[in-house]
Amino acid sequence: MQKLRFYNASVLTMEDMTIRSGEVWTEGDTIIYVGESKPGEKFDREINLCGNLIMPSFKNAHTHSAMTFLRSYADDMPLNDWLFKQVFPMEDKLTTEDIYIFTKLAALEYFSSGTTACFDMYFHPDYIEKAAIDTGMRLVLCGAVSGGDNKADFDSALTRLEDYLTRFNGKHPLVSFKMGFHAEYTTHISIMKAIAELARKHKQPVYTHNSETASEVAGCIERHGKTPTALMEELGMFEYGGGGFHCVHMTDEDMEIFKSRGLWAITNPCSNCKLASGIAPLAEMRQRGINLAIGTDGPASNNALDMFREMYLATVLQKIRENDAAAMPADAVLEMAVKGSALSMGLNDCDTLAAGKKADMLVIDLNRPNMQPMHNVVKNIVFAGSKENVKMTVSGGVIVYEDGSFPTLDTEKIYSEANAAVKALIER
Asked: DSSP character for 170?
């Protein structure tokens, strides 16, 4: 196992927001020491960070990685037209090899922006898993079942979820699986009831797209007489926790359910802005004590996989929504993107820098114009930071991005394969 020393560093453990001088040691995929400099150890590599900041990496708590193939393909359209006229027809043409190639492309983007883990909901999870393992990306797969009122859809949805629970959990250190389904509006009530029963049987949390648009909520009320959150609560879906992606149009009752069940509201501000879905009530949810995390959504609706953009929008949009420049402070947003996102995905050993935690880290270059002067480094990261400041990304103890390059990956091959796959897809 490779043993690394990161020294002469500014260290932000995220156990609190205090930045201290010190160093971090890793062995294999695990952090073995965080603290002041001390002698007496032998390392495979010692890295002088020259005062730059080392911290836990970002975790992308909601995405569809392989949708890199749709980046800038169908923009400036209303959500329903975008989804049903452009996205779904193109997705019908995807092959399993396409999923593998496009997920590898996404991994490059994650690493270059300081993200080491993603909560990925998409088709053919075996090929997403293969791409994650081959690139060194930590992956939490989320169930994406959907279907109508017929036995084939019902049997397929339940068989897949139960199969995935055993197939993807405990088999590879980088990969795990959480139960989930696409959304209320794409999933028949009979399947939703069965998912709730399955969650109780296996004592599992459940995740889904939730209250992304006003029309989604109105449609659910028309069909079932209640909001998606209230419906899922009535079905007993959240007895073991879980969460919702987007959570833009939340009622008081919805937020009370999230609070009482300890659910995660996983916000995606860039996607919600681009598709004109609305602004999630993050400041209010934070005030109520609701668990909050951040994801990018897919690169078709964002179009980037960049947590810096998400953090910036997460805070400034709340200031507009609440008409309060003090709403949603920067340190709370950084905590959402690092600790909150990790915990929402079940990555309880990836949330902070501490001995025994996973060595998933990033190094922020403080010697860039946008980080100077350093009145407050945390606020600089959220309000002024960008991918430009990511000097190094470490995933599972392996340096996967350093000073603009990817030491473990053939980027030109990945780019070439992705462009060839897109061309073939369009021609099909």
From this structure: S
Distance CA 184, CA 174 (A): 30
pLDDT at res. 75? 86
Predicted pLDDT of residue 285: 98
Q: What is the DSSP letter of 382?
A: I
Strands 138-142 and 115-120, bridge-based pairing: parallel
The alpha carbon of residue 42 and the mean position of all alpha carbons in its chain are separated, in whole angstroms, by 35
- State the sign of the Cα–Cα–Cα–Cα dihedral 163, 166, 171, 172: positive
Contacts for 259-263: CB closer than 8 Å, 24+ residues apart: 259/288, 259/289, 259/290, 261/233, 262/291, 263/238, 263/290, 263/291
* Nearest partner of 113 among 317, 281, 344, 270, judged by Cα: 270
| Unique residue bearing structure tokens 């209320």 | 184
pTM for the predicted model, two decimal places: 0.96
Pair 335, 307: CB distance under 8 Å: no
Measure the CA–CA gap between 258 and 291, rounded to whole angstroms.
8
What is the structure's pLDDT at 87? 85
**Please, how many CA atoms are within 13 Å of residue 190, restricted to the half-sphere of its CB?**
11
Question: Which pLDDT belongs to residue 82?
Answer: 79
Instruction: Pick out the chain residues at pLDDT < 50.
Output: none
pLDDT at 243: 98
- The angle at the Cα of 131, spanning 185 to 391, to the nearest 5 degrees, equals 105
CB atoms < 10 A from the CB of 14, how many?
16
DSSP H or E run through 116: strand 115-120
Residues in the chain: 428
Give 187's DSSP letter.
B
With both helix axes pointing from N to C terminus, report the angle between 125-135 and 96-112 in degrees, rounded to the nearest 10.
40
Are the C-beta atoms of residues 227 and 220 closer than 8 Å to each other? yes
